[in-house]
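[recover] target loaded
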């Protein structure tokens, strides 16, 4: 792992913990454990333009375990979406852009409102279905005008819900090779170990649904394995992929690996110790090193360039297939057909 990657991941962990501590409410454990996989996704794979969050052909990201939204808000801020550091400081406060679960109507860059476990992965399946339908309707040789990927992070709780099973079964049946799900397998739920009520082999179940299944044994540190897994997932075009990522909930905290970091602030003493462990000042809050901003803003610039390339493709598409172009742009604009 490079030094800038390590610094970025630790920044995400500390910022998320700061947000929960300032609100005296929230879930620090999942963001701290998911920071490496989220960092890999957003700096290496997800194609989006923070300067125009509504760009049509962007990749979609769904945080199915929406209680861990301090993770998503931190990433959106680093990338340059319309989310300031003051917005992070106002986490879970009335009328804030950073509510206790991601709200599509509140926060720039949030694709879908998530909260009820299982709903988010079902939304991700729906988004992947929509992309495949639009691609089949509008793409022509030399004009892949609809070709985005839907990514989701899910937790154990999401996969315990019936709606997740139904949607995942449909995704396998429809062979949605444009869907990549990262499963945060940290072994912890509110009351303790997931083994209290969840002992199935998740990957065997998803294989039975017709999914491509992968696993990463060290999701806390092994960015190379995470990167390879997502690359392999994107290369698989005929099946959706689920990647089981073994993580430590609340990585770095005194109560890491226990239910004690699932749904409560770390506490001032533990948070200070985490900051010291990761090389931050224990007395400073809501700080981001310049190099971290630089890394994320460089990725944002790549997303802006991807949108420019798509706009150029759409201009040529309008010349080659004017009727299809008119219909697609009507749908993108949300306009009803004439009459």
């Amino acid at each position: 792992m490079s030094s800038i990657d390590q610094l970025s991941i630790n920044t995400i962990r500390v910022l998320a913990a700061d947000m929960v501590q300032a609100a005296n409410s929230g879930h620090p454990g999942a963001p701290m454990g998911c920071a490496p996989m989220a960092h890999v996704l957003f700096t290496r794979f997800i194609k989006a333009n923070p300067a125009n969050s509504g760009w049509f052909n962007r990749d979609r990201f769904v945080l199915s375990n929406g209680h861990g939204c301090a993770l998503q808000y931190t990433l959106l801020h680093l990338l340059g979406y319309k989310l300031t550091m003051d917005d992070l400081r106002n986490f879970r406060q009335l009328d804030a852009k950073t509510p206790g679960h991601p709200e599509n109507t509140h926060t720039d860059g949030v694709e879908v409102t998530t909260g009820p476990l299982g709903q988010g992965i079902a939304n991700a399946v729906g988004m992947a279905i929509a992309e495949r339908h639009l691609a089949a309707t509008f793409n022509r040789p030399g004009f892949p005008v609809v070709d985005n990927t839907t990514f989701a992070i899910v937790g154990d709780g999401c996969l315990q819900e019936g709606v997740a099973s139904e949607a995942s079964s449909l995704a396998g049946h429809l062979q949605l090779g444009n869907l990549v799900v990262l499963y945060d397998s940290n072994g912890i739920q509110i009351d303790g170990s997931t083994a209290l009520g969840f002992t199935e082999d998740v990957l065997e179940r998803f294989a039975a649904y017709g999914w491509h299944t992968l696993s990463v044994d060290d999701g806390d540190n092994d960015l190379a394995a995470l990167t390879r897994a997502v690359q392999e997932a994107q290369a698989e075009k005929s099946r959706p992929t689920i990647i089981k990522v073994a993580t430590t909930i609340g990585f770095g905290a005194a109560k890491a690996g226990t239910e004690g970091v699932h749904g409560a602030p770390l506490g001032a003493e533990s948070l200070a110790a985490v900051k010291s462990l990761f090389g931050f000042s224990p007395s400073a809050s809501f700080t981001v090193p310049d190099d971290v901003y630089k890394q994320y803003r460089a990725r944002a610039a790549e997303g802006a360039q991807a949108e420019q390339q798509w706009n150029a493709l759409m201009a040529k598409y309008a010349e080659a297939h004017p009727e299809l172009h008119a219909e697609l742009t009507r749908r993108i604009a949300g306009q009803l057909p004439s009459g």
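[recover] notes: Residues 290-320 form the longest helix (31 residues).
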